[in-house]
Hints:
Distance between the termini: 67 Å
Order of helices and strands: EEEHEHEHEHEHEHHHHHHHHHHH
CATH class of the largest domain: Alpha Beta
Number of domains: 2
Structural class: alpha/beta
CATH architecture of the largest domain: 3-Layer(aba) Sandwich
Amino acid sequence: MNVQPGRIAAPRELFRSDDLLVRRRGGFGGNVCYVTFDSYTDNRTLDRQGFGELYFDGRGIDAIHVLSCDNRWYQYDELPRALAAIASATRNYERVIAYGSSMGGFAALHYGSACGATIGIALSPQYSVDPAVVPFERRWADDAARIAFRDHDIPALETEYIVYDPRDAHDRRHFALFAARAPVEGIEVPHGGHPVAAYLSETGLLGPLLEATEAGALDAAAFTAELRRRRRRSGHYFSILAERTPPYRPRQKVALAELAVRTQEDNAVYHSQLAVALDAAGEHERANPVHRRAIEMTGGGVHQHHKLVLHLEQRGELGRAIELAEQLVADHPDVLWLPRLCQRLRRKRRHSHWAGRVARMLGLDPLLDQLSG
Length: 373
């Protein structure tokens, strides 16, 4: 129950196991409480900020944050105990809203009612990642292969809002599955990408979405129209357009990626995408400093380093690419796809050495020069 308005209770853990943490940030005195579920993360610790934690603190809104230390879509034996602890803490609020994005959106809609919520807001949620349920979903195949899926058989929420990109074939199919399960209000964000959270934030409409939901006054049609009107304020919008531009239009990809950077110059992801587009257009010299800038902006982000590895590979610098990839594996042992990157690069180097030996034996110096870049 909320304490006296104006007082802020210290953060309090409601539940903790090796895999799950439930942390309450409350005491602001309102009648609304959010239950948030965190998204997919490479930060494998429970001692981090919850989804939207700083935002809700800043607004003085009580919230309970659910975090996992591994990306298993909350498929843990102890999940029912964690949900029961949340339900006990939310029982005196007038309005409880489950909220999450992508993996967190999956959990918000599937487990929100067990937390005492009646309303759910999900940004680009998956209905499931279980291959037996969604055989079309392969984006997280490595993670799904490690999950023992459980059927918690929890009723749907009374009101569900799903914000998603209908141009994303996967997310469109996930939305259809949710809509077949229970009445859902869909808010379409064409070219919002996965997830759509960045588009909402950059257009200044993420906060209004939540505030309208809290007030019970969300007009989905009007909100969708306003999103479209503001789309050019979003670097994410241009980034998704660049991503979806076919490879036979490399200059168009570069132009759209440049628009994304100009729209949000402080976003390292857009710098990294621009560098990749420049590489695809064969402009490796222009791409190199953009890759370096993206890495500098993130303090050494794994995804930005990955793009640099591919850049070095395209320049024919396989030795440096392998060295950097091996360092990434050592620094990020939980990132499942990095070992495969190293294996592919090593295999390519072996094939290059073999082809080089054949070329020397046959006196094919031009081929040897081509292989050496």
